[in-house]
Design goal:
The protein is 37% helix and 13% strand. The chain is α/β, with parallel strands linked by helices. The protein starts with 7 loop residues before the first strand and ends in a 13-residue tail after the last helix. It contains 7 helices and 7 strands, in the order βαβββαβαβαααβα. 33% of the residues are buried.
Length: 206
């Protein structure tokens, strides 16, 4: 089977509702997103292969299913892929040349939220899911892993790398604060950005 062209990437940010939007977008009949592979459906197709590691998770671990992520593809017109590690420079390396060769008109969705609360949320996530690599003392965790928390909340710096390679029109930055109040506006805007028809998506929890 020939691999389909990937049309858009969800590049982050971690703990900014990317899993929810993965669900919403994959519910659209014209959109394909991998659902069965990767780490929490994050597959890192365009991460550089290697042993770069954040909290014990390497690029190669994220990419382990990369040859199988299109197993369920059924000729949907628009194909996406997700990895919040695409916005964790300099701790993760994204192969921008590979992206440009694959699709020079790639589009990027970047979900962001208020950074201070997001750091706390991200810390709690790691403490719950990866306690062996997370200090139970928040202050000590910041001392040990401060660069990680800083880079994932450096929205301008992360987005600028994509703008520099692909232009401002290629990226849509979406503020997910007060998400429930704004979801009815955000989803149609994303569908327009991706050039797919509007579709009534069932909202999680409703």
């Amino acid at each position: 089977m020939n691999l389909p062209q990937i049309d858009f990437l969800i590049i982050g940010a971690a703990k900014c509702a990317t899993t929810s939007f993965h669900h919403y977008l994959s519910a659209h009949p014209d959109i394909f997103l991998p659902m069965r592979h990767g780490i929490n459906q994050e597959t890192g197709f365009f991460l550089a292969a290697g042993e770069e590691s954040i909290k014990g998770v390497t690029n190669d671990m994220i990419r382990k299913d990369v040859q199988r992520i299109f197993d369920d593809y059924r000729e949907e017109s628009t194909v996406g892929e997700r990895a919040t590690d695409y916005s964790k420079f300099p701790l993760r390396t994204v192969d921008f040349a590979k992206i440009k060769t694959h699709n020079p008109r790639m589009k990027f969705l970047y979900f962001v939220a208020e950074p201070v609360e997001r750091v706390k949320k991200l810390y709690r996530h790691h403490l719950r899911r990866n306690p062996a690599n997370t200090d139970p003392d928040f202050r000590l965790e910041m001392e040990k892993s401060g660069l990680y928390y800083e880079c994932v909340c450096s929205y301008f710096a992360q987005a600028k790398r994509y703008v520099d390679f692909f232009g401002e029109e290629s990226i849509r930055i979406i503020d997910v604060n007060r998400l429930e109040d704004n979801l009815s506006r955000i989803l149609p805007d994303i569908f327009r950005f991706l050039d797919v028809r509007e579709y009534p998506v069932k909202i999680l929890g409703k």
